[in-house]
Records
---
Amino acid sequence: MLASILIAAVGAALVSAHTVLTYPGWRGDNLITNDTFPYGMQWMYPCGGMNTTTNRTYWPVSGGAIAFQPGWFQGHATAQIFINLGFGTDGPNGGPPNMSNPMIPQFGITGPSKNPYSGTICLPQVPLPVNASVKAGDNATIQVVELAVHGAALYSVSD
Ligand SMILES: *[C@@H]1O[C@H](CO)[C@@H](O)[C@H](O)[C@H]1NC(C)=O
Ligand SMILES: *[C@@H]1O[C@H](CO)[C@@H](O)[C@H](O)[C@H]1NC(C)=O
Ligand SMILES: *[C@@H]1O[C@H](CO)[C@@H](O)[C@H](O)[C@H]1NC(C)=O
Ligand SMILES: *[C@@H]1O[C@H](CO)[C@@H](O)[C@H](O)[C@H]1NC(C)=O
Ligand SMILES: *[C@@H]1O[C@H](CO)[C@@H](O)[C@H](O)[C@H]1NC(C)=O
Ligand SMILES: *[C@@H]1O[C@H](CO)[C@@H](O)[C@H](O)[C@H]1NC(C)=O
């Protein structure tokens, strides 16, 4: 009885530990824990367990806004955020070959508490990675990484 309550509590903590990418639209809901993703999809490098989408979002070639809700985590009042861009469709899954191009320097966030919260971070003008050379119509993928206090990271992406 006690053991099953503890397991349920641990499961709830894992399930609530997530980011939601609100703009540009993400590949889809990866707030899922099941037999294929027993630790939860969003911990899977590099794209949170999601395949490349076919419903791509237009995003300015001069850079633009990125918004996300970082607070679907429990037990972590602080985290480190990274935002990267991957170019093209030559990688596994028809996505980028890598996500190794930072768009902005990493930054830390402090939540209101260790509990989940619904606040959104909006960065109104995120530039392309340094020395990026793109033209209108190119495919690319934005990756938001949330590094938790214990060193594991959550991944959400937008194509
Ligand atoms: C793409 O489709 C998925 C599945 O219907 C949806 O969850 C997601 O929000 C869509 N993304 C965009 C950018 O429209
Ligand atoms: C787990 O969820 C993912 C995403 O919806 C899905 O692709 C996969 O088939 C699911 N696995 C099981 C065993 O239901
Ligand atoms: C990704 O695509 C593979 C191959 O088509 C498929 O087996 C897998 O279920 C897909 N994953 C998700 C999360 O939809
Ligand atoms: C971009 O990706 C779409 C599928 O999402 C594909 O149809 C199109 O050919 C790609 N464009 C380029 C320039 O690779
Ligand atoms: C990452 O991918 C780009 C193509 O988008 C390629 O030019 C570059 O060499 C790759 N970098 C690494 C470290 O693999
Ligand atoms: C950008 O390009 C300049 C000029 O080629 C080079 O000196 C610099 O190292 C590049 N920066 C990065 C981050 O690749």
---
Amino acid sequence: MFRSTQLKTLAFAAAFACLSSVQAATTVIPLSSFDNYTIFEEYWAYLYPWGSDHNGSARMVGNSTNHAHIALASSTLSLIATPTSGAVPPTSTANPNPAIHYASGTVYAKEQITVTSTNSYTLQGEFSAPTAVGTWPAFWLTAVNSWPPETDIGEWKGTANTWFNTFNTSSIVQSTIVPWPTDLSFHSLQAILTAESNNEDVKIEFFMDGALKSTQYGEGFVGKPLWLIVDLQMEGSSGSPGPTGTTTYKIRDVEITRSGS
Ligand SMILES: *[C@@H]1O[C@H](CO)[C@@H](O)[C@H](O)[C@H]1NC(C)=O
Ligand SMILES: *[C@@H]1O[C@H](CO)[C@@H](O)[C@H](O)[C@H]1NC(C)=O
Ligand SMILES: *[C@@H]1O[C@H](CO)[C@@H](O)[C@H](O)[C@H]1NC(C)=O
Ligand SMILES: *[C@@H]1O[C@H](CO)[C@@H](O)[C@H](O)[C@H]1NC(C)=O
């Protein structure tokens, strides 16, 4: 009897905890955001927040009528890089102005992510990421107003690894490097961002396939708005030369939730 009452109490407590966490969670980006271009464009925008170029050799190309490099099918986003053979202006407009060798795809979440002392964010998705030399896909957060903050939830730099990184300054970085299969199979990544008790720093817990791989701390990240970017850059940090053929990075089941306010 004692045992069964205890179990009932536990079951009630668990159900209540579950219910209250469901009620407190706000969906920032729903699981369905890659179902079609209509819902996609509600939650995501094409290219980088600052334009088509960054510090690799790919120039991003795409909009609501050109899906050659940013394409949806079967609720999966494909970012597709192809060599350009000099068809576009020769250097990136972004520091350190590398030569452009590819046309590729990038998208970013329209809603910025701002961790405060009263909320917590969970970001997750499943990724089929190329790991060949010269391929540089990522799923990352970068500061809207200054740089850093930066936190990389997935970054592949041309080897059979993904990197979890948090930048306090441009040179003070914590990185955890985790083996990543090279067969283009999908694996899940998740990050949970919560303010520390000093209400200044943010704790970031990184998971791969449901297992905690790293806990990192971003100094002064509380209250700083961040862009969530999904990009297929090329060369840059991932070595060179990159592939002579087409490279595809696939992303599915992305979901962003916020608990608290
Ligand atoms: C697009 O996908 C969303 C989410 O699944 C769905 O609600 C909507 O009806 C779809 N719209 C079109 C035009 O297919
Ligand atoms: C989309 O991009 C194509 C070229 O890639 C361009 O011709 C077209 O005007 C663009 N459309 C919009 C809506 O920006
Ligand atoms: C970044 O700052 C946080 C908060 O002060 C600290 O816990 C963390 O160790 C720092 N990271 C590095 C790489 O020094
Ligand atoms: C490119 O810029 C990002 C920040 O946007 C930084 O994390 C990365 O180290 C830079 N890499 C290179 C090769 O410049």
